[in-house]
Design brief:
9 helices, 27% strand, globular, alpha/beta
Length: 203
């Protein structure tokens, strides 16, 4: 329960599909059999990045910047702002400002689309910049819009490899594959699929 788990802290994004609201405090609680698994809050800045307390928006100067991309692990779902991977990296890299561009449910498509479509030079003051992507195997499903992830990724960036071997963004999964998306929606109610955790295409 909470604004993060219900999506109240999200907003539609024409490029990324969805993302956190700017300058927002979101929160969520997970209770299983009466025991609290997590109870946390997170804060975003004007560019919709999760704040990194060890890398304040003002202050420095910083010699370089590190951009963190990925899904919920990189974002820090379940932990407070001062407990995230980004915060720990910033503490260990005092001359580097860390920016957390990750968010729950994101995959490589969101990172590539953000780099292609947004002027990050206007959002990052430092001249020397590196990027780190935190990968888990499920992110392959988020790239190809698998049945198991389409529930939240239907508006996510849809890429295909063109004849020259380059990734080309065609639009969103729902916009470019409307029939397949509707078919996935129909199958979501199938108890056999859910019980056996069937997914396709297989990865």
């Amino acid at each position: 329960e909470g604004t993060h788990s219900t999506g109240e802290s999200y907003s539609f994004d024409r490029v990324l599909g969805y993302g956190p609201k700017p300058n927002f405090v979101g929160e969520a609680r997970l209770v299983v059999d009466g025991a609290t698994v997590y109870d946390y809050a997170y804060t975003t800045d004007a560019q919709r990045r999760r704040i990194v307390p060890a890398s304040p928006a003002s202050g420095g100067p910083y010699a370089r910047a590190l951009l963190l991309f990925g899904g919920s692990y990189a974002f820090g779902e379940g932990v407070d702002d001062h407990q995230t991977l980004a915060h720990e990296l910033a503490k260990r890299l005092p001359d580097t400002r860390v920016y957390n561009y990750a968010f729950s449910g994101y995959g490589p498509g969101q990172m590539l689309a953000r780099l292609e479509s947004y002027d990050l030079r206007a959002e990052v003051a430092e001249q020397e910049v590196a990027a780190l992507y935190v990968f888990i195997p499920n992110h392959v499903r988020r790239v190809n819009g698998s049945y198991s992830v389409i529930n939240w990724s239907r508006h996510s960036p849809y890429y295909q490899i063109d004849a020259s071997g380059q990734a080309e963004r065609l639009g969103s999964f729902q916009g470019e594959r409307p029939i397949l998306t509707r078919w996935y929606d129909f199958l979501r109610g199938d108890q056999v699929f859910q019980y056996y955790q069937v997914d396709f295409p297989p990865v």
